[in-house]
Amino acid sequence: MATVNDILNFLETLAPRSMKMDWDNVGLLCGSKHNPVTKILVALDPFEGVCREATETGAELIVTHHPLIFQAPTSITDETSIGRSIMRLCRHGISAVNAHTNLDQAPGGVNDVLAERLGLKNIQIVDPIDAPIPYGLLRMGEAESQPLEKFLATVKDALGCDGLRYVDSGKPVRHVAVGGGSCAGAMQEALDAGCDTFVTADVKYNQFWDAKDLGLNLIDAGHFYTENPVVPVLAGKLQAAFPEITVKVSETHHDCMKFY
Amino acid sequence: MATVNDILNFLETLAPRSMKMDWDNVGLLCGSKHNPVTKILVALDPFEGVCREATETGAELIVTHHPLIFQAPTSITDETSIGRSIMRLCRHGISAVNAHTNLDQAPGGVNDVLAERLGLKNIQIVDPIDAPIPYGLLRMGEAESQPLEKFLATVKDALGCDGLRYVDSGKPVRHVAVGGGSCAGAMQEALDAGCDTFVTADVKYNQFWDAKDLGLNLIDAGHFYTENPVVPVLAGKLQAAFPEITVKVSETHHDCMKFY
Amino acid sequence: MATVNDILNFLETLAPRSMKMDWDNVGLLCGSKHNPVTKILVALDPFEGVCREATETGAELIVTHHPLIFQAPTSITDETSIGRSIMRLCRHGISAVNAHTNLDQAPGGVNDVLAERLGLKNIQIVDPIDAPIPYGLLRMGEAESQPLEKFLATVKDALGCDGLRYVDSGKPVRHVAVGGGSCAGAMQEALDAGCDTFVTADVKYNQFWDAKDLGLNLIDAGHFYTENPVVPVLAGKLQAAFPEITVKVSETHHDCMKFY
Amino acid sequence: MATVNDILNFLETLAPRSMKMDWDNVGLLCGSKHNPVTKILVALDPFEGVCREATETGAELIVTHHPLIFQAPTSITDETSIGRSIMRLCRHGISAVNAHTNLDQAPGGVNDVLAERLGLKNIQIVDPIDAPIPYGLLRMGEAESQPLEKFLATVKDALGCDGLRYVDSGKPVRHVAVGGGSCAGAMQEALDAGCDTFVTADVKYNQFWDAKDLGLNLIDAGHFYTENPVVPVLAGKLQAAFPEITVKVSETHHDCMKFY
Amino acid sequence: MATVNDILNFLETLAPRSMKMDWDNVGLLCGSKHNPVTKILVALDPFEGVCREATETGAELIVTHHPLIFQAPTSITDETSIGRSIMRLCRHGISAVNAHTNLDQAPGGVNDVLAERLGLKNIQIVDPIDAPIPYGLLRMGEAESQPLEKFLATVKDALGCDGLRYVDSGKPVRHVAVGGGSCAGAMQEALDAGCDTFVTADVKYNQFWDAKDLGLNLIDAGHFYTENPVVPVLAGKLQAAFPEITVKVSETHHDCMKFY
Amino acid sequence: MATVNDILNFLETLAPRSMKMDWDNVGLLCGSKHNPVTKILVALDPFEGVCREATETGAELIVTHHPLIFQAPTSITDETSIGRSIMRLCRHGISAVNAHTNLDQAPGGVNDVLAERLGLKNIQIVDPIDAPIPYGLLRMGEAESQPLEKFLATVKDALGCDGLRYVDSGKPVRHVAVGGGSCAGAMQEALDAGCDTFVTADVKYNQFWDAKDLGLNLIDAGHFYTENPVVPVLAGKLQAAFPEITVKVSETHHDCMKFY
Predict the structure, then answer these.
(1) In chain D, what residues touch B77 (CB-CB under 8 Å)?
(2) Per-residue pLDDT reduced to its tens digit, B72-83
(3) Pairing of strands D165-167, F257-259
(4) Which one-letter DSSP state was computed for residue E36?
(5) Region C69-78: what's the mean pLDDT?
(6) How far away is chain F from the Cα of D202, in angstroms, using its nearest Cα?
(7) Which residues of C make CB contacts under 8 Å with A?
(8) In angstroms, what CA-CA distances link B88 with B224, C235, D67?
């Protein structure tokens, strides 16, 4: 029977640990690699609701993008969300593994999926890191030349998000960079690569103004909506590799943030 | 004739330097305190557009909330926005003064104005710092008990913003904390003070989830829209104190970020 | 029914959190303060064997001196001892609380118990910290003036340890300082307080030589043997305070180190 | 018409940016690379007097050795010398460029000019950094073997300085190292290269004694006097490269320090 | 006549400076490399007793493993052991040289001698550092498969120590790693290299438990007893290389720590 | 017979250790406080020449302003000046004590002596530190209003130095601050205290320009010449306190730096 270790080994082929950023925490963060696995729950985050869903659906493993443990905890109690999640997983013998910045940066990962979902053509890695398999954070691709307004509609529709926040640099959309999650700090890279438009999330006030100053259309499409597209893709790859396991995408995990 | 120094002294009565945070940069950031002033332009930010408006309207002084210089520049050239602003101000002999976190924290400042604009009652400083004139970052006040949806409409209407982002903790709105700009890091303080709802800006993905975990309605009403209400108030106080000076609120400075 | 919180409150009276060292981690480190408690297991360490004994004896709470979590873990897996302990506690719904340096320093704590066990008279705190209830790390007391050899026999007998390591400064034993666990770094303090002999543990090569240079008899009586005497005392106080709870001292936890 | 950018490009051929030290600030520090240039003022320092001379002579560009901005300023006001300089330059649309440690280290730069001015033969780079064009801080060369007293007269005469400060190691002068400005920290390098005499500036009390201990004649010939010789050389090269531009050496900038 | 420098050069062939750890202090730590040498005293430590023995036996040089100066002293007075040692050496014109971590790591050094003394076969460097002459901290070798108890007797007998402290992992002894002095921090390396048993010193309470958790027999045979075997070997090599010098092993230097 | 300790106790009354700066090293830096003293050599520095003079004149103690050990040495050998000094002192059983920044700051110390030597009236501590006996680094006093040129002659004559370096701010001399040694970093303090002129040493190029910008006459009268006046005063006080001891001022120690 497949074990947690088999899943870890498979994830290593999709998003090698060597592709993660230095500060990141990835791999087996809770449980045991020796545990047998018959059901996997895949989700963007290992939050409490996802852990509860795992116990309710009988999954022995959750596979997520974000790590269960980011700031190492000095206690595991029911007074914190991370404590409640770990206590629940341990109580039910559920393991938790994740691929975070390694999945952002790997070919076929978070950002390739995002670029494809937006319908970009000739997708390339921006500033690829030289390695046997080149990788990197941002992707860029070409869109039909169009007014920003039209592209905003495409983004909203493709990602299924309720709202977008953006700044209009006055340029039409033609060369688009994407960075799922909080990548606004990389806007100069996108610009240097020749892009006129950058889709990312968690953009702050001064960053919108920086983009305007730099002449870059900057679109905040939401952290959840720019990263979640990888979840069903990842689930599909796991299912294909382990046909005997039931692989489910979380049905309960949605963005908690809403627009009004 | 009034000089820049007279304005600085008046601002010191509204928002004493002793109330600023350690890392902040406030006061006279460009020009000369000896310059005479006949026209003042007041705005939230000393961005290029505001500097241009100052030259076009003949103002000798701009008074803003955000500082002209935040990250000290190693060059002053037309290749950066800050360089272009400083060069323009110097070329036209315009001075720039600001009150930032001292105005956030001072009684009657950014956050008192915000709380009043939202119609809160019994407005108090959250965790006031003990001083002859107590001050502090957040304000809290009471609203008529109401569903969150209703309060969202009030916020949007009162601040005139195009959109809001929020998380719904399931609680009705009764005790509301406010912190204009990027204050989500203080959400625990708001909670500890007994609030069910917190209005601030620049909220990140994980902060919305933290609020949900903590049982706090968190509303991101925009950095510009939560802080800009202080601008006409500040202009009014300047005008009242210096009737011989023409005090104008910037007509060109709006939020560059839009919702879609 | 008593809860974990009641135990925490009682421990706070014995060893207030304010008496701990800055770097220390004490209190509820695993579980829930709301859990009911009918059986407590008390031990020096919350190691795997103790956690296993707790599950086997049906305890809902372990109370230890050393903290369950010292170096905050970036994962909770069966590949580490700390991971296995936490997983076991969570699986069985057992909570873990501890009092570490607060119990070392509190009156009636680790070092008072050790000093009494060694039969010292006129026991005092060395360099007491000025507070409503003075406290401090080391204790000192008087012994009948005797050759070191004789005192070594007393120590070995009183603590029940298989062996001692020591350096003989040539002085007879009269004024004795004690510091359970790794306190050799405080030998100058013991000397300055007028002691000729210091009982502690985990002494390194250069520290034995330092003691010889300073003219101090230094005795390493073992980390376990110098701190474990507090365990039955602590259990007794818990039992007296909570007569309805079954309080047990661990039967399986002994020092793993042996002499040959 | 030539622009500031053309001057920058030409300076890059004389003193490439890659030759500067990590902490240094060189290149365009004020103004715009797009500005046309018909008159250049060249000086060692971009101090207020030099900026005033630029405005009075109609120069659109000042070229200096020392940077206009060293410690990045948190305000640009008339209360500081740097603020007054920047305000003046901006008011008059004058740009400022500089080549500092890159010009110290480049072949033909500050230290080669100094070595030649002192009449040294077989001038070489001390500890050259391996690069397509080797470079380095100090230069060394040979002098006719002579008593130190005689060489002091040569230095004073060649550099035109009013006074020298020195320590006499008792050795005759034969192999001389030079480092314009504050290079006394490199005296061991000069010694290791086989020099008996080192000409530099800004020497402190303990450094004179260190030199005496090491057996090195150490001569402080003044920061201004050891670096200023490069100024007319640099002006000459600029003039030759841009015959249509009027290139002037500052007539007002002298050392403010005097001997008594 | 041989000088201190000749001894330094010879030690460089046995334990090159390039093999030392970054933080270490080795070589000539007191005196003059130009001093003639007719008598050398070799000891593990340059403590006061050894310095006194040097003066009493007329040695001009002491050669030790541990450095005379570890923590650089801010004064040289008779109030500290290091001060008294240095004052004595200087008063008598005695030089002090040492080889510390370079001798630990060099082939034929501390750990090879220790491994041989314990009768291990097929001795190898654990995790050798790639260099023309590979080197490294730990050594490993094979023993006849035996119960731990039997091996403990061998260690005690071979090293001549009065006592051992150890933890029994339950495994028989077959593959043994050794690291003289305080090497318990490297226990994972020993385990990864396939060892079941590790002989080192200065082991702390938690390290014994770590070893037990990891399934490693860990033996603390004393800092002195695990390193001192190299002393006569080193003396022998010096004597062979310098037959005209009298090379003596210290007769007074023993471990000050005793077992009871 | 008087001992080194008696001298230390007396120095504590002149320049208490509590008045030193945090980073400083003062008191007994070499030798033994128990040593008897019949002859003391007093000098500004404990350099090799002074140590040699001590051995030649039979002094058992040198008392200096600058510390023997500033940068703690990792070896004591004849390859460094500090090593040679310490070896010489130890060889001859000479102790070394010093009072550095405590003597700079104490009433009656370096800077009071300097101010008096310059003939200033109404001498006061600049920015005195509040303590039972107030103290501080700089002194200020009044001079007859005079042209700078005249005051320069006074300084040169009073201190006996061969040359001065200075910048002329254009102001007459009336209120003079003094700081022996390297105190140019405190020029703003001198200015804020109302001084027009500041006498110190080790002034760098940019500091002369800063003084000119600030409108302060800055005079570099040499590190040796501004501090050495305290030496005979200190010797006199020692002689008065210990009439039975021969107290000598060094005859060989002069500034090694010369003007040309």
Answers:
(1) 28-33
(2) 999 999 999 999
(3) antiparallel
(4) B
(5) 97
(6) 5
(7) 25, 27-34, 69, 72-79, 86-87, 89-91, 93
(8) 24, 76, 22
User: Which residue is listed with tokens 């939020």?
Assistant: B255
Asked if D231 and D65 touch (Cβ cutoff 8 Å), the reply is: yes
D29, D72, D90 member nearest B72 (Cβ): D72
Burial C156-182 (b: 16+ CB within 10 A, else e): bebbebebbbbbbbeebbebbbbbbbb
Distance in angstroms (rounded) separating the CA atoms of residues A68 and D121: 69
Average pLDDT over residues E100-114: 98
DSSP state of A171: P
Buried b (16+ CB within 10 A) or exposed e, A41-70: bbbbbbbbbbbebbeeeebbbbbbbbbbbe
Rounded to the nearest 5 degrees, what angle is found at the Cα of B84, between the Cα atoms of B81 and B85? 85
**Cα gap C125→C105, rounded to integer Å:** 9
**Pairwise CB contact (< 8 Å): F77 & E33:** yes
Minimal-distance CA residue of chain C relative to E47: C209
Burial of D59 (0-12, 13-18, 19+ CB in 10 A): buried
Distances (CA, A) of C35 to B94, C25, C42: 67, 21, 17
Which pLDDT score is estimated for B77?
98
| CB-CB under 8 Å, F201 with D223 | no
- pLDDT number for residue E215: 97
CB contact under 8 Å between A29 and C75, yes or no, is yes
CA atoms within 13 A on the CB side of B204: 12
State whether residue C40 is helix, strand or coil. Answer: strand
Q: What is the DSSP letter of A2?
A: -
**How many C-beta atoms lie closer than 10 Å to residue F183's C-beta?**
24
Quick: pLDDT tens for F26-82.
999 999 999 999 999 999 999 999 999 999 999 999 999 999 999 999 999 999 999
Q: Which residues on chain A are in Cβ contact (under 8 Å) with C75?
A: 25, 27-30, 69
Report the candidate in B155, B125, B147 with the shortest Cα–Cα distance to residue B220: B155
Q: Report how far Cα C257 is from the mean position of its chain's Cα atoms.
A: 17
Distance, in Å, from the CA atom of B207 to the CA atom of B213, rounded to the nearest integer, reads 10
Task: Report the residue of B154, B165, B199, B202 to disrupt the A interface, i.e. the one with the largest count of A CBs within 10 Å.
Answer: B165
Residues from B contacting A (CB-CB < 8 Å) are 45, 47-48, 81, 149, 152-153, 156, 163-168, 181-182, 201-205, 208-210, 212-213, 222-224, 256-260
Residues linked to residue D97 through DSSP beta bridges, in sequence order? D28, D63
pLDDT at E158: 98
| Dist. CA B129–CA B106, nearest whole Å | 11
Task: Please report, as a single letter, which amino acid is at residue B112.
Answer: D
* Backbone phi and psi for residue D95, each to the nearest 5 degrees, phi listed first: -95, 160
> Which 3 state secondary structure label does DSSP give C144?
strand
Residues in chain C: 260
Q: Nearest-CA distance from E31 to chain F in Å?
A: 5
Confidence at C84, pLDDT banded by 50, 70, 90: very high
- Give the whole-angstrom CA distance, residue A1 versus residue C73: 30
Task: Compare CB distances from F224 to D149, D181, D205 and report the shortest one's residue.
Answer: D205
- Do D77 and B33 count as a contact with CB atoms less than 8 A apart? yes
Dihedral-angle region of residue D108 (phi above 0 means left; psi in -120 to 50 means alpha; beta otherwise): left
Dist CA B224 CA B222 (whole Å)? 5
Instruction: Enumerate the residues of chain C whose CB falls inside 8 A of the CB of residue A69.
Output: 73-76
Which pLDDT does position B28 carry in this prediction? 98
pLDDT band at C42 (very low <50, low <70, confident <90, very high): very high
pLDDT 10s digits, B97-112: 999 999 999 999 999 9
Do B and D touch, counting CB pairs below 8 Å (3 needed)?
A: yes
Q: How far is B244 from chain A (nearest CA, A)?
A: 34
Answer whether B touches A (≥3 Cβ pairs < 8 Å): yes
